[in-house]
Amino acid sequence: MNNNALVGAVLASTLGAAVFAHNGATGLVMDRMNGMTAMRDVMRDLAPMMQGSTAFDVRAVQTAAATLMAHAGDNMTKLFPNEPIPAASFAREDIWNNWAEFASLSDDLRTDAMGLAVAAPNALTVPPSPVDTTADAPMTDHSAMQMTPTPETFSIAQLMGVEPLREVTRATSGPVADGPSETAPAIDFAMMAADDVFEMVSKTCASCHALFRRGN
After folding, report:
1. Exposure string (b/e) for 158-196, b if CB count within 10 Å is 16 or more?
2. SS3 of 192, please?
3. What is the SS3 assignment for 57?
4. Which residues are bridge partners to 164 per DSSP?
5. Is 154 in contact with 209 (CB distance < 8 Å)?
6. Which residues are paired to 179 by β-bridges?
7. pTM over 0.85
8. pLDDT tens, 168-177?
9. Phi, psi of 176 (to 5 degrees)
10. What CA–CA distance (Å, rounded) separates 166 from 28?
11. What's the burial of 100, exposed, middle or buried (CB within 10 Å: 0-12/13-18/19+)?
């Protein structure tokens, strides 16, 4: 699936919110600006692949995903201590007034980045649903079939040293219709096209910028 217009629009919003003039920033302010700039550059470089205008490179996407992971989750929130905001900072006080939302978005970004690494071998194509292997399903002899080589990907150790990426899922927010005590089904990134996960990353970034960053 290739949602060029939607990916382009979300990316434009994300990159527009991530343009930094460091204005003499130092210390933690500089550290978090550098992290945001690294993520901005990754998103910019991935966009042509996700829009289908350049060749899709699985390893490059997984390398980019590792960069996003390195600047998300706890690695992001630890750079935002509750203290007076320097003039050079683009952070808004709403970060600390609504810390739970900020931390949740940071965690979502890390999970979505891990999901991007998982979905990378799928490129821009949603993989088929698993074949029915129940007793009633007909048996097929695949011994003479030529198998398509699996794209070379990074090992987990090469990426981030995280748990096996094929197990990564993300729970959708909010209760399901059957009642408030239930949660919606988790997202299985292994069954998604990479550009769809890229769109999720872009939206998470854009949501965080809209809530917690000053300026455009």
Report:
1. ebbeeeebeebbbeeeeeeeeeeeeeeeebebbebbbbb
2. coil
3. coil
4. none
5. no
6. 176
7. no
8. 677 665 544 4
9. -85, 170
10. 34
11. exposed
C-alpha–C-alpha distance, residues 14 and 43, integer Å: 9
Residue type at 135 in one-letter notation? A
pLDDT band at 3 (very low <50, low <70, confident <90, very high): low
At 32, the pLDDT band (50, 70, 90 cuts) reads confident
| 3-class secondary structure, 26 | coil
DSSP 215: -
Query: Can you tell me the mean pLDDT for 118-136?
Result: 78
Out of 29-38, 121-130, 140-149, least confident range: 140-149
CA distance 48 to 42: 11
DSSP per residue over 124-170, as a string? TSPPPPPPP-STTSPP---TTSPPPPPPP---HHHHTS-S-GGG-EE
Residues in the chain: 216
Collect contacts of 4-11 with beta carbons under 8 A, ≥24 apart. Answer: 4/51, 4/52, 6/199, 7/47, 7/50, 7/51, 7/195, 7/198, 7/199, 7/202, 8/47, 8/51, 10/199, 10/202, 10/203, 10/206, 11/43, 11/44, 11/47, 11/202
- Whole-number pLDDT of residue 118: 96
What do you get for the CA distance between the two ends of the chain, in Å?
30
